[in-house]
C-alpha cells in the first residue's frame, strides 16, 4: 500500500524454495514477482513428503508442526493474500490436517 509500484522480490529456502519455484511455474503469466531466488531446494519434494508422512514421527511432528506454522501465518495474512492471489482458497488451507494437503491447496 505504501509503495504500490515497488518491485517485489522473493527468496525461498529448503521447502519454501520448492513452494516458491512451484508457484512461479504454475503462475508464470500472472505472478507479481520481479525476481526470485531458490536456495537449497529439495528435489522430488512430493515423494519425500509422502514417505515422511508415512512414519509416525514424520506425520505427528514434522507434518503437523509445519502445517500449524504455515496456517498460523495464513491466519494473520490470509485475507491480504486472498486480495492478491486469484483463486486463493484460504478456508481449504486452514482446514488441512497434513502438510501434503496444505501444499496441494497452496501450490
How many separate helices? Answer: 5
Strand proportion, as a percent range, falls in 5-15%
Distance between the termini: 25 Å
Order of helices and strands: EHEHHHH
Portion in helices: 55-70%
Q: What is the averaged pLDDT score?
A: 89
Low-confidence stretches: none
Shape: globular
Largest sheet: 2 strands, parallel
Total domains, how many? 2
Defining key terms:
single chain, mainly alpha, 2 domains, two-stranded parallel sheet, 5 helices, 60% helix, 9% strand, globular, short-chain carboxylesterase activity, monoacylglycerol lipase activity
What is the topology?
Blueprint: E1 9-13, H1 15-26, E2 35-39, H2 45-53, H3 56-84, H4 90-95, H5 99-106
Explain this structure.
With 107 residues, the protein is mainly alpha-helical. It has 2 domains: 1-43, no CATH class; 45-107, no CATH class. 60% of the residues lie in helices and 9% in strands. A two-stranded parallel ribbon has the order 1-2. Helix 1 (15-26) links the parallel strand 1 (9-13) and strand 2 (35-39). The chain is globular, with a radius of gyration of 15 Å. The two termini are 25 Å apart. The mean pLDDT is 89.
Summarize the structure.
With 107 residues, the protein is mainly alpha-helical. The protein is built from five helices and two strands.
Amino acid at each position: 500500500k505504501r509503495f504500490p509500484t515497488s518491485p517485489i522480490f522473493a527468496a525461498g529456502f529448503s521447502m519454501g524454495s520448492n513452494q516458491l519455484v512451484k508457484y512461479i511455474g504454475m503462475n508464470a503469466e500472472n505472478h507479481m514477482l520481479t525476481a526470485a531466488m531458490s536456495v537449497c531446494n529439495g528435489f522430488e519434494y512430493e515423494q519425500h513428503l509422502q514417505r515422511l508422512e508415512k512414519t509416525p514421527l514424520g506425520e505427528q511432528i514434522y507434518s503437523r508442526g509445519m502445517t500449524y506454522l504455515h496456517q498460523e501465518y495464513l491466519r494473520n495474512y490470509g485475507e491480504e493474500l486472498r486480495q492478491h492471489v486469484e483463486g486463493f482458497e484460504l478456508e481449504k488451507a486452514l482446514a488441512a490436517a497434513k502438510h501434503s494437503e496444505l501444499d496441494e491447496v497452496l501450490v
